[in-house]
Backbone:
Protein backbone atom coordinates (compact mmCIF):
# COMPACT_ATOMS: atom_id res chain seq x y z
CA UNK A 1 0.00 0.00 0.00
CA UNK A 2 1.33 3.47 -0.93
CA UNK A 3 0.90 6.61 1.15
CA UNK A 4 1.66 10.14 -0.02
CA UNK A 5 3.87 11.80 2.60
CA UNK A 6 2.28 15.17 1.82
CA UNK A 7 -1.17 13.86 2.81
CA UNK A 8 -0.54 11.59 5.77
CA UNK A 9 1.08 11.51 9.18
CA UNK A 10 3.94 9.12 9.86
CA UNK A 11 3.13 5.82 11.54
CA UNK A 12 4.37 4.99 15.05
CA UNK A 13 7.33 3.03 13.62
CA UNK A 14 9.05 3.70 10.31
CA UNK A 15 12.10 2.51 8.37
CA UNK A 16 13.99 5.46 6.82
CA UNK A 17 15.59 4.84 3.45
CA UNK A 18 18.64 6.90 2.48
CA UNK A 19 16.87 8.62 -0.43
CA UNK A 20 14.34 10.12 1.97
CA UNK A 21 16.97 11.31 4.44
CA UNK A 22 19.12 12.90 1.74
CA UNK A 23 16.19 14.73 0.14
CA UNK A 24 14.76 15.89 3.47
CA UNK A 25 18.09 17.17 4.81
CA UNK A 26 19.88 18.53 1.73
CA UNK A 27 18.27 21.00 -0.66
CA UNK A 28 19.66 20.92 -4.16
CA UNK A 29 18.68 23.55 -6.74
CA UNK A 30 16.88 20.99 -8.90
CA UNK A 31 14.83 19.49 -6.05
CA UNK A 32 13.62 22.44 -3.95
CA UNK A 33 9.97 21.33 -4.00
CA UNK A 34 10.77 17.69 -3.18
CA UNK A 35 13.07 18.85 -0.38
CA UNK A 36 10.34 20.96 1.25
CA UNK A 37 7.82 18.10 1.13
CA UNK A 38 10.29 15.53 2.47
CA UNK A 39 11.51 17.95 5.15
CA UNK A 40 7.93 18.56 6.28
CA UNK A 41 7.42 14.81 6.71
CA UNK A 42 10.74 14.50 8.60
CA UNK A 43 9.60 17.27 10.96
CA UNK A 44 6.39 15.30 11.58
CA UNK A 45 8.47 12.19 12.33
CA UNK A 46 10.50 14.15 14.86
CA UNK A 47 7.56 15.97 16.47
CA UNK A 48 5.20 13.00 16.62
CA UNK A 49 7.80 10.83 18.32
CA UNK A 50 7.90 8.18 15.63
CA UNK A 51 10.34 5.35 16.31
CA UNK A 52 12.71 5.00 13.35
CA UNK A 53 14.89 2.24 11.97
CA UNK A 54 17.74 2.25 9.47
CA UNK A 55 20.57 0.03 8.33
CA UNK A 56 24.17 1.00 8.97
CA UNK A 57 24.30 1.22 5.18
CA UNK A 58 22.13 4.35 5.45
CA UNK A 59 24.86 6.32 7.17
CA UNK A 60 27.49 5.17 4.67
CA UNK A 61 25.28 6.12 1.71
CA UNK A 62 24.42 9.46 3.30
CA UNK A 63 28.07 10.39 3.89
CA UNK A 64 29.01 9.24 0.38
CA UNK A 65 26.27 11.45 -1.07
CA UNK A 66 27.31 14.41 1.11
CA UNK A 67 30.84 14.19 -0.24
CA UNK A 68 29.56 13.98 -3.80
CA UNK A 69 27.13 16.91 -3.40
CA UNK A 70 29.71 19.08 -1.63
CA UNK A 71 32.36 18.53 -4.25
CA UNK A 72 30.36 18.30 -7.47
CA UNK A 73 29.92 22.09 -7.89
CA UNK A 74 33.69 22.42 -7.59
CA UNK A 75 34.93 19.56 -9.78
CA UNK A 76 31.90 18.54 -11.81
CA UNK A 77 31.03 14.89 -12.30
CA UNK A 78 34.61 13.73 -11.78
CA UNK A 79 34.43 13.66 -7.97
CA UNK A 80 35.98 10.19 -7.71
CA UNK A 81 38.88 11.10 -9.99
CA UNK A 82 39.45 14.37 -8.11
CA UNK A 83 39.56 12.55 -4.77
CA UNK A 84 42.13 10.05 -6.02
CA UNK A 85 44.24 12.73 -7.70
CA UNK A 86 44.38 15.01 -4.67
CA UNK A 87 44.60 13.30 -1.25
CA UNK A 88 44.14 16.68 0.48
CA UNK A 89 40.83 17.28 -1.28
CA UNK A 90 38.83 16.24 1.81
CA UNK A 91 40.77 18.62 3.98
CA UNK A 92 40.40 21.51 1.54
CA UNK A 93 36.60 21.09 1.37
CA UNK A 94 36.02 19.79 4.89
CA UNK A 95 33.63 22.56 5.99
CA UNK A 96 31.19 21.96 3.11
CA UNK A 97 31.17 18.20 3.70
CA UNK A 98 30.85 18.66 7.47
CA UNK A 99 27.90 21.02 6.98
CA UNK A 100 25.95 18.26 5.25
CA UNK A 101 27.00 15.58 7.73
CA UNK A 102 26.03 17.84 10.66
CA UNK A 103 22.46 17.82 9.36
CA UNK A 104 22.43 14.03 9.67
CA UNK A 105 23.89 14.24 13.21
CA UNK A 106 21.28 16.84 14.15
CA UNK A 107 18.50 14.50 12.98
CA UNK A 108 19.96 11.61 14.97
CA UNK A 109 20.10 13.82 18.06
CA UNK A 110 16.47 14.88 17.61
CA UNK A 111 15.51 11.21 17.36
CA UNK A 112 17.79 10.08 20.23
CA UNK A 113 16.36 7.04 21.95
CA UNK A 114 13.99 6.47 19.01
CA UNK A 115 16.53 5.55 16.28
CA UNK A 116 17.77 1.99 15.82
CA UNK A 117 20.40 0.92 13.28
CA UNK A 118 20.64 -2.69 12.15
CA UNK A 119 24.18 -3.92 11.53
CA UNK A 120 24.88 -5.71 8.28
CA UNK A 121 25.46 -9.33 9.23
CA UNK A 122 25.11 -12.68 7.44
CA UNK A 123 21.37 -12.82 8.10
CA UNK A 124 20.88 -9.37 6.56
CA UNK A 125 23.03 -10.31 3.55
CA UNK A 126 21.14 -13.55 2.94
CA UNK A 127 17.75 -11.85 3.31
CA UNK A 128 18.92 -8.92 1.13
CA UNK A 129 19.96 -11.31 -1.63
CA UNK A 130 16.51 -12.92 -1.53
CA UNK A 131 14.73 -9.54 -1.50
CA UNK A 132 16.84 -8.20 -4.36
CA UNK A 133 16.10 -11.28 -6.45
CA UNK A 134 12.40 -11.50 -5.62
CA UNK A 135 11.64 -7.80 -6.20
CA UNK A 136 14.27 -7.01 -8.84
CA UNK A 137 16.10 -4.54 -6.58
CA UNK A 138 19.70 -3.39 -6.52
CA UNK A 139 21.56 -5.20 -3.72
CA UNK A 140 21.83 -2.03 -1.58
CA UNK A 141 18.05 -1.61 -1.78
CA UNK A 142 17.75 -5.28 -0.85
CA UNK A 143 19.77 -4.52 2.30
CA UNK A 144 17.32 -1.75 3.23
CA UNK A 145 14.28 -3.95 2.64
CA UNK A 146 15.89 -6.88 4.47
CA UNK A 147 16.74 -4.62 7.40
CA UNK A 148 13.16 -3.40 7.65
CA UNK A 149 11.86 -6.98 7.46
CA UNK A 150 14.30 -8.25 10.10
CA UNK A 151 13.32 -5.36 12.38
CA UNK A 152 9.65 -6.36 11.89
CA UNK A 153 8.90 -2.92 10.49
CA UNK A 154 6.27 -2.90 7.72
CA UNK A 155 6.33 0.90 7.30
CA UNK A 156 8.98 2.18 4.92
CA UNK A 157 9.67 5.72 3.70
CA UNK A 158 11.68 6.19 0.52
CA UNK A 159 11.68 8.38 -2.56
CA UNK A 160 12.89 5.41 -4.60
CA UNK A 161 9.91 4.04 -6.55
CA UNK A 162 11.47 0.56 -6.68
CA UNK A 163 9.86 -0.17 -3.30
CA UNK A 164 6.30 0.69 -4.41
CA UNK A 165 5.40 -2.85 -5.50
CA UNK A 166 6.75 -4.73 -2.48
CA UNK A 167 4.19 -7.06 -0.94
CA UNK A 168 3.16 -6.51 2.69
CA UNK A 169 4.90 -3.15 2.89
CA UNK A 170 3.33 0.18 3.76
CA UNK A 171 5.28 2.45 1.43
CA UNK A 172 5.45 6.17 2.23
CA UNK A 173 6.67 8.38 -0.62
CA UNK A 174 5.96 11.44 -2.74
CA UNK A 175 3.20 10.54 -5.16
CA UNK A 176 3.22 12.55 -8.38
CA UNK A 177 -0.08 14.03 -9.50
CA UNK A 178 -1.16 12.62 -12.84
Residues:
Amino acid sequence: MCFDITKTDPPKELYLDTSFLITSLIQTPSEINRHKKARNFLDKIINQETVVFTSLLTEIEFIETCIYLALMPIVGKGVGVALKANPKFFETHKSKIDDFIDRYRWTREKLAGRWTDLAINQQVIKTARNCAQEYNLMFKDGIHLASARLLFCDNFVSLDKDFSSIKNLNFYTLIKKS
